[in-house]
Amino acid sequence: MIALLALATTAFAGDYYHPTDVSAASAQFQRAAQATQEPLGAMQDRLDAQAQALVDMELALDLLGERAPASQRERLVELRRLHARQRAVAQLFIEELAGDFDTAFSEALQRSLSGRTPEICRAQASIPGPRARASSSCSGTAINGALAHSMDSDKALELAVSELVSRPWPTVGLDASAARAVGPDGAPTLDITAWFRSAVGPRLSGIDHADEADRLPIEAAVEDGASAEQLERLRADAAAITAHTAAARLALSEPVLAAIEQGQAKGKLPPFTWCAQPELLGGCDATTAAPELGEALLASKPVRKALPK
Hints:
The protein has 309 residues and is mainly alpha-helical. It has two domains: 2-165, no CATH class; 189-306, no CATH class. It has helices spanning 2-9, 19-25, 27-64, 70-113, 144-152, 155-165, 192-223, 228-265, 291-299, 301-306; strands at 15-17, 119-120, 141-142, 189-191, 273-275. Strands 2-1-3 form a three-stranded parallel beta sheet. Helix 2 crosses helix 5, helix 3 crosses helix 8 and helix 4 (70-113) packs across helix 5.
């Protein structure tokens, strides 16, 4: 151990290192990585699940059109606002945490170097596999392991890592406890997004792809640093695309919904209510319909006829 520490603090003539390789050899770095990997993945998964639920709810409301309560549209706007805020808070937390980790390890590396300046060089494998050897661009002796060992003995780094890994992570989640959509008493619910995707999935995907293509110029303009005046026009363009997409979805669903409602009025199809709210956002306060209901709708001749080809 004394010899290794000495290597990190004596003359470095002909020696080289690279911060990435030092980190890979550091037990403290591995400790930090292991402590943050799970909460980071869980937070990202939760945000992604929320984003997908919001997409599903928008699709459901577009398919229902005026059949959807206005309160659900208002709720979707509020949920999107909350989700955007949580994503922004999460992104800021990650950036600050990563920056603080970088500062802590950079400072510890400088302490281990003790003011000396060996060559910074990352060895590249010239032969793949276990017998790989460093390329000739890195001359001298690699001291990555010695520096990592010295850093792992650095009490200031140990304390810094302990503080960083103990930071509370942002709370991610949309409160859905009091937001369950209520349907007619005793009527089962059927997930409208799931049913339409099973019935006319390619047509819905086509509408989605057209929406994405129409938004590409807007995204490019924002990335290029659009002015305040341009952003105002871009927001209007985005709203027009949203309205166009909603109209396309409704044009697809309206004949189908009308055919189902006529079948129910004649007693040829069982009563149920469409559920537009994903479970993650509260779901629907009614019994979930059995899979046979969706199959019965698809088996109905008037419904099949109303489905777009």
